[in-house]
Amino acid sequence: MATLQSLLMRIFYAVVLLIAVLVLNFSMMHLAPGDVADTISQSMGGADQEILDQIRADYGLDQPFFVQLGSYMGKVLRFDLGYSFFYNTPVTELILQRLPATLLLVFTAQILALFIGVILGVISARKPNGIASHFVTILALFGYSAPVFWTGILLLIGFSLNIQLFPVAGMRDVTIEGGFWVHFVDIVRHLVLPVVTLGSIFLALYSRLARATMMEVLGSDYVRTAKAKGLSEREVVYKHALKNSLSPVITLAGLQFSAVISGAVLVEAVFSWPGLGTLAFQSIIARDTPTILGILFFSALVVIIGNLLTDIALRFVDPRVGGKG
Amino acid sequence: MSIPPIIPTEETPKARHPMAEAWEMFRGNHAAMVALAVLALIIITAIIGPDIYPTDPFDMVWAPFSPPGVDGFLLGTDYLGRDLMAALIHGARVSIVIGVAAAFMSVFIGVTVGALAGFYRGWVEELLMRITEFFQVLPTLLFAMVIVALFGASLPMITFAIGVVSWTAVARITRSEFLRIRELEYVTASRASGAKNGKLMFQIILPNALPPIIVQAALMVGSAILFEAGLSFLGLTDPNVVSWGQVIGSNRQYILDASYTVTIPGIAIFVTVLAISLVGDGLNDALNPKLRQR
After folding, report:
1. Pick from A172, A186, A176: which is nearest to A272 by CA?
2. By CB distance 3.0 to 4.6 Å, which of A109, A186, A227, B159 could disulfide with A198?
3. Is B15's pLDDT higher than 70?
4. Min Cα separation A262/chain B (Å)
């Protein structure tokens, strides 16, 4: 019961955060030089003051700030994020077309980084001077210091241009024909390099934390007790210690969602991945304000949902979480 | 009648300045010392390099795609026949200046928010931490892209955008340090002897909270440089100023013809940020008294 209540609190709080994002979005749009009337008049090849005023009245831009804010919120509630004059499409439709590609990239990178990171962490905690441990250290130095778009280009040069192992750009090959599995394999081949580029940074982060917590847990009393009971090293590590070293790593992963999306923007730009990042990049060049702000809103939504999922995952791993509300 | 001077005897150990002790600790860390030397070299290049190597990075000086070392251009030329060496030297200034200025700004915001939250507690803390969480929900790069796209891609605006999206870590560290230190006895003693809140916060607590903030500030410079590189790679930069990320972004279509135009500026960014993070690690060991006892 307490768990359900605290979960409801989290959801309520997530909604408040989303409203705050909307207010921020609207204020920035309001403060920025140029408005919809300017955009429309530009696409018509210029207009005089009378027509500009007419357009502003039509779009309600002559109303006071809070009235406009209210009508903006009302529209968003009906999933209306405005109209993209550049793509001639409603922004929501545009974003929903691109969202699956970004979600695929972001969640694959996060889950693989978390999974491999924990395994690497456990191996290197058991052998602090082994190969895995050195690999984690080097990966951490590289992952923090190398610009992610540069790493992506290097991988592209190495694995797509020099040895043509993976496709150069995009998410699927439109010339391919066949059943579900043919398309599945095609998407996976396109996915490999972007996921490796994006995931390696977070892999470094998670494996380092997993190594540190695992070493701490392995030195604790209950692990010694478990060993004294005569359990094998394997059983102690995977049945007892692992569960307790998981929750800090999952907490960290939850906090990284916004960083993963930031990284995804650059990775998408390098690999022409047809997701939100590429859309953001294109609409910024085209000065398409409604689309840009819509993307910011949706990415905040993805981060908030990611945080909620992390919270739920934590409750499964660690029953102490959530009890106190 | 005069007071006899206190003559230190042989046995009295000399009290050493804490900074001297930290410097000794730092000097023992070879990786950090090498990194510091590399960093000094890069900073000197950023300051005087453009005067020593005055070739305009926007000038077409030779045939395009002349490889490094051939025809007298140490790092070759790019797709427009511009000298890559000039771009790196002139770009160093932009990267370093934006990195330092943005880090300074985010440390300023972060310390102010964290100090107020940790010192006053109660609803002030609640409100400020909610605001911090709000900034953590927005993907930093996208948020900065939006600011730069809406308000113009000038260098001050880019610096502002990076600073305003990346202060949350500093705020959290400052707050937790303040929460810890405000309960210590010497703070209670100062409060009892009538110190005002402002004095308590900035003269008594803050100096003692500084070590982890300094380490974080050093790391912030590195991540701000990466941030600027990312923005200019995407083309969100002042088109009249050359920067490392921008060189990579403008040459990336030509990686088949001349991959060095992309790899070399990337190495410059990588080495700079790596040097900064190694110096940060060294500072962390030198300034953290708990680690020192090990």
Report:
1. A172
2. A109
3. no
4. 5
Residue of B39, B135, B146, B244 for testing the chain A interface, max A β-carbons within 10 Å: B146
Q: Do B262 and A153 touch (CB under 8 A)?
A: yes
Confidence band (pLDDT; 50, 70, 90) for B289? low
For the ranges A290-304, B47-61, B181-195, B251-265, the maximum mean pLDDT occurs at A290-304
pTM: 0.85
- List the single range of A105-114, A240-249, B237-246 with lowest mean pLDDT: A240-249
Question: How far apart, in whole angstroms, are the C-alpha atoms of residue B89 and residue B268?
Answer: 10
Residue B118 near residue B183, CB atoms below 8 Å: no
Judged by CB atoms closer than 8 Å, whether chains meet at A280 and B145 is answered as yes
DSSP for B223-265 reads HHHHHHHHHHHTT-S-TTS--HHHHHHHHGGGTTT-THHHHHH
Q: Which residue has the higher pLDDT, B100 or B198?
A: B100
By the 8 A CB rule, do B106 and B162 touch? yes
Place of tokens 């990415």: A299
Residue A319: burial class (beta carbons within 10 Å; 0-12, 13-18, 19+)? exposed
User: Looking at CA atoms only, how far is residue A239 from chain B in angstroms?
Assistant: 32
Which residue among B226, B234, B259 places its CB closest to the CB of A281?
B234
User: What sign for the dihedral angle of Cα A284, A288, A289, A294?
Assistant: negative
Q: Model ipTM?
A: 0.84
